[in-house]
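We modelled each protein-ligand pair independently. The example shown here corresponds to the zinc ion entry; the chain sequence is given first, followed by the ligand as SMILES.
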Amino acid sequence: VVYRGRGASVAARLGAVAALTRSVGGADYRLPHTGVMSYAADAPKIPAGAVTSEDADLIEHLAKQGRVRLHLTLTPQELPPVESYNVIGDLKGSEHPEQVVIVSGHLDSWDLGTGAIDDAAGIAVAMQAAQVMKQLGLRPRRTLRVIAWMDEEGGLIGARSYVQQHGAEIGNHFAAVESDLGAGHAMGINFAGPPQLQALLRPVASVLQSSGAGTLRASEEVGSDISALTAAGVPSFSPIQDTRFYFDYHHTAADTLDKVVLRELQENGAVMSVLSYALTNLAVDLPRSAPRPPRD
Ligand SMILES: [Zn+2]
């Protein structure tokens, strides 16, 4: 993804006239894997495109035999922004309604696919967490806030405006969870924050162990939309998922509902539900990291 995002400027500095990025996925369906890219200020803005793995292999094969000439017809359009919204629903906390635990996914998708795995699946499991609490008649002590972030793909626009609007209440954001790596088999929980979080999460992991989701893994970043909250010191979490097939489909025309396996989606829903129940009801405060500047 970093090659797609920044490759054109790196190539331009080396004198390239255009840059093509090979698909990240390993699938053999001749699908270009697309997504956002940006130009560095100090490099010429050369045309950039995505090619399928099969075509990248062909170009490589031909290049071994001699000089290859490519004619590019690129038709990108960037339309002016329109008004849109994050969709937010709160299940009010009974004891600390001002303290917020976010569970989330993002509402938009890259334009080629319908966005079933990126990221309708994430929103589904976030909504599931609130739904399970309702169904079981549980009232969280802290507020459970379900967020469907708008415009992640265009550059975290919804997440940035949320932080702008709620900047004064960051201290009341107890934790943030995002699912944005598909709907594959859930294997545990990523956490970003102080290492002591691991011991606090152990009871959660042992509940999830029976479904194969008992692994705990420290990670610097756990979700793009919540990365600004993570940087601000809010303990942050995401499901660890089997992502072997994610890059075959997301940001391609094949990101459709048939790629979501119900059983695996349910496993992710279980991780989100158990984790968010624990976070909204935990008897102690979570340790927080010192704030650091968010990444670009
Ligand atoms: Zn996504």
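The chain has eight helices and nine strands.
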